[in-house]
């Protein structure tokens, strides 16, 4: 029985896809067009507390002004306009429990908003985790059932949030697959086994443009299927995932680099050739990429790049590349003639807030 004032807590990491998901079935189930594979950004986390508010008794329901779900993002004092998608998600979850319940959501990110990392993956994974805690689902469901519950609801918030639900390891690689038989769930996520050397992998983002993106990922997913390249990319994803899974086990760095970089370009090619077309690879990104590739290749250091649906350069690298990345930062600022911020996925172990 849910009482007014009940609380639930959770935290979840962000992630960056190395083999992207782009394009989805826009029905209520939001099934992605292709499987994907991501690296967990354990240092970039969302911390979320939910509190039930406004449980009305049926006879007083008519007389009461319905209380809306409320969102406080990174601040206890300022109410943030709740995205419609989040509102609908909460209503849908509570529909089966007590549909008159609304929530106060307090969420904190330990990473800055304009740092080139979308907070939707960690944010939605932490939100559904906090609701599961509020509903005490751990007591009522098996570990597998709970995992399925979390991933299914997280996906409806943000596809990439599905890959942020698994929390067993900070530095994990997560595979998000389509299920053949949709009995329990429509998709499945699992943690991949990887060679211990990947534990030393580091990640940072060069923020080339911190402005809000012109095309939201929801709109982008909608136009993916209009690109003549979309089906070609989707058809090749399973093979890429199988190859990368093997390369992660064997520590084949070159193959992981090659597949990640090729797939990031492939996703951006689909974006650019869709209708309407979305182009995130502006002149600055092209210059930044060319300089990175030239410096990385001439120094033969272990580092590769990827790009999300935005103009910010994500670099995954080993210690031996640190010096080159410092030099790269200086040269990049000279080349673009302005300050470029870097954010590092460095708060391993999580930072407790609030
Ligand atoms: O998480 P969504 O549904 O907003 O879509 C984002 C998809 C990309 O970040 C561009 C790629 C990915 O696989 O994370």
From TrEMBL:
Source organism, top-level taxon: Bacteria
InterPro entries: GHMP_kinase_C_sf, Mev_diP_decarb, MVD-like_N, Mvd1_C, Ribosomal_Su5_D2-typ_SF, Ribsml_uS5_D2-typ_fold_subgr
Domain Diphosphomevalonate decarboxylase-like N-terminal as annotated: residue spans: 12-185
Domain Mvd1 C-terminal: 205-324
GO molecular function: diphosphomevalonate decarboxylase activity
Pfam families reported in the protein's UniProt record: MDD_C (PF18376), MVD-like_N (PF22700)
Any one GO CC term of the record: cytosol
BP GO annotations: isopentenyl diphosphate biosynthetic process, mevalonate pathway
NCBIfam families associated with the record: mevDPdecarb (TIGR01240)
Protein name (record): Diphosphomevalonate decarboxylase
Lineage, uppermost ranks: Bacteria, Pseudomonadati, Bdellovibrionota, Oligoflexia, Silvanigrellales
């Amino acid at each position: 029985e849910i009482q007014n004032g009940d609380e639930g807590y959770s935290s979840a990491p962000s992630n960056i896809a190395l083999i992207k998901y782009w394009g989805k079935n826009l029905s209520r189930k939001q099934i992605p067009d292709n499987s994907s594979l991501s690296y967990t950004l354990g240092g970039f986390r969302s911390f979320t507390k939910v509190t039930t508010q406004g449980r009305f008794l049926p006879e007083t329901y008519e007389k009461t002004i319905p209380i809306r779900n409320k969102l406080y993002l990174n601040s206890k004092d300022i109410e943030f306009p709740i995205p419609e998608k989040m509102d609908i998600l909460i209503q849908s979850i509570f529909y089966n429990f007590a549909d008159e319940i609304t929530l106060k959501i307090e969420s904190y990110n330990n990473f800055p908003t304009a740092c080139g990392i979308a907070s939707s993956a960690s944010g939605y994974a932490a939100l559904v985790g906090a609701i599961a805690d509020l509903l005490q689902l751990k007591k009522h469901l098996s570990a597998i059932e709970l995992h399925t519950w979390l991933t299914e609801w997280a996906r409806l918030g943000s596809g990439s949030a599905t890959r942020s639900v698994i929390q067993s390891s900070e530095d994990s690689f997560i595979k998000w697959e389509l299920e053949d038989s949709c009995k329990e769930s429509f998709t499945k996520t699992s943690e991949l086994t990887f060679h211990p050397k990947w534990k030393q992998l580091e990640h940072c983002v060069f923020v080339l443009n911190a402005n809000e993106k012109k095309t939201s990922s929801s709109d982008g997913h909608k136009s993916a299927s209009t690109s003549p390249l979309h089906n070609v990319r989707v058809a090749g994803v399973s093979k890429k995932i199988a190859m990368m899974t093997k390369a992660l086990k064997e520590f084949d760095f070159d193959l992981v680099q090659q597949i990640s970089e090729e797939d990031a370009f492939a996703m951006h090619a689909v974006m650019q050739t869709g209708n309407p077309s979305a182009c995130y690879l502006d002149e600055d990104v092209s210059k930044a990429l060319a300089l990175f590739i030239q410096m990385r290749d001439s120094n033969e250091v272990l580092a590769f790049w990827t790009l999300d649906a935005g103009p910010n350069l994500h670099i995954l690298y080993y210690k031996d590349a640190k010096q080159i990345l410092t030099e790269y930062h200086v040269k990049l600022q000279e080349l673009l003639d302005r300050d470029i911020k870097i954010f590092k996925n460095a708060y391993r172990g999580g930072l407790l807030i609030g």
